[in-house]
Give the backbone structure.
Amino acid sequence: MKILRALLWVAPGVFVLAAPVFLDRGALNDLWSLALAVTLASAWNILGGFAGQVSLGYSAFIGIGAYTTALLSLRGVNPFLTLPLAAALAAIFSVIIGLPAFRLRGPYFTIATIGVGEAVRVCAATVSFTGGSSGLRMPAGSFDFNHNYFSMVGLAIVTVAVAAWVKRSVLGRALSAIRQDIDAAEALGVNSTVFKLAAHALSAAIVAIAGSLYAINFQYIAPSSVFDFQLSLSIVLMPIIGGVGSVAGPILGALIVSTLQIKLLTLPALRDSFLFIYGGLLILVMMFEPKGLVGIGRRAWVFVTTFRSRRSVADAG
Amino acid sequence: MQQFVSVLLNSLLSAGLYATMAYGLAVIYGVMRIINLAHAGVMMLGAYVTFALFTRFALDPFIGLVIVGPLFFLFGVILYQVFGRRMAGSGNAPSIESLLLLFGVWLVLQNTAYIIWTGDTQSILTSYTMKSMKIAGVRLGLPSIFVFLASVASLVFLNVLLTRTYLGKAIRAVTQNRDAARLSGVNARRISGIAFGLGTAFAGVAGAMLSVLMAFTPDFGRSFLLKSFCIIVLGGMESVTGVAAGALVLALLENGLATYTSVPTSLQDAVSFAMLFIALVALPRGLPGLLARFERKAATR
């Protein structure tokens, strides 16, 4: 059983790493998008899922990463060397935002993060050194899809591993206590602000690196692409559909959402309205199973096991 | 001086509209303790319904309000019937689940509009859209004056409803203390449904009035939603006068910044978003809370 479980985690990793050998460029592009989605969803889940702090402002961190990389590359720095700086800047920004914002609880925090995300986007579109609303183009000749593919997939695998590690660590237990009852956690001596800030900084750093890789792969960024509210939205949607608070949930959600996006974007009739389906999914999940696909799976598992044990009891009697 | 009067009058005019749109959010928050993210979608829908009435039946937007108001009240009641199970106010803290649920509703509304009306920018051009008149030496657009008058009318209607009728008293009772209200025989579920309808109606009316003042797309409404949040946070979430004061403060801030500083207009939205953040963090009980704190300080001295 344990081996089967481990295989379930290792096999997809091996598959995506070996994929360039036998898949064509189009499929690899889709896998790149999937890896990006898994990274964003799993990183968001560290704060939003484990600690229950739902933030709708994560596009700010993608933007910080993407712009750090683009601006430095234009000054001649190797794009991949800018990743640590992007991560550090995003982490610092996350602490600056988090210090006041974490005084707010639940939905008030969520609304404050919408405000932050929008304010950052408007600023990026107005300030001149970011190229304003027309955006920035990466320097020519810095594109190598193989590098991009392996770095994105590598980041996704590292992120999932980090999320799994966090969930088991002291940090994860503290975050879980904060999610369940912040007052009780504080009373037991958990410094909720410090742990929330740590989770925020960790996930912001990962998301910023993803933003950098986004800039490197797409070669062009603008406030309307990397600071977009819809981006913040899909980051939140993936873990929610898959199941917040688990390690597998965001991966499942990312798989569904990015498949939908790849399939739907090719239908011209739905190009403007694929958010309709996001909204519908959000409503369905919230109405019927707020724990997402993982919750449904767990219910099915409980149903099957109790059914089996009931039958074995009946057979014995 | 002239400039100052101009800022003051323009702020007052926008404050009326701001108060109407924020009040829709405040009444729902007060009664049900939920943050209605679908508000933005409803405002957008209000604008498009007014647009449809105007283009199909040549109905003046302000006469259209008579239809838009009741229509959106009904729409809100239906929304409550469908989603109320998950939104039911349990405890005093709003839940993340209801927030995300209403977020989903917003997305569905927004994209229904994309399907029906496409993403093109629309606007309503009436015979008085470009006209203006001079008040106290300041030239003011006729549409914004009409919008102000309509806003004041709807706020007066609301105030009479809240203070003079059983329904209004019940709404205030549930806002103050849900359990106590239920103990004294108020049907809190029904009141919640009506309050949700009322809030939705105000959002629809606000959207209808916005459609007279500016061009709109299905995506419009988000910045107004954030402004509404900013106002109800400033206004202390639940009182009509607080909301009006919050609206005036935001409008003065926006107009003042645009007139007296060189902050580019494209940054104006960022100002109100930053204001929202600061208000949430620094004034958790809004301006009334701040006043109360000052009063207490003065009393202890």
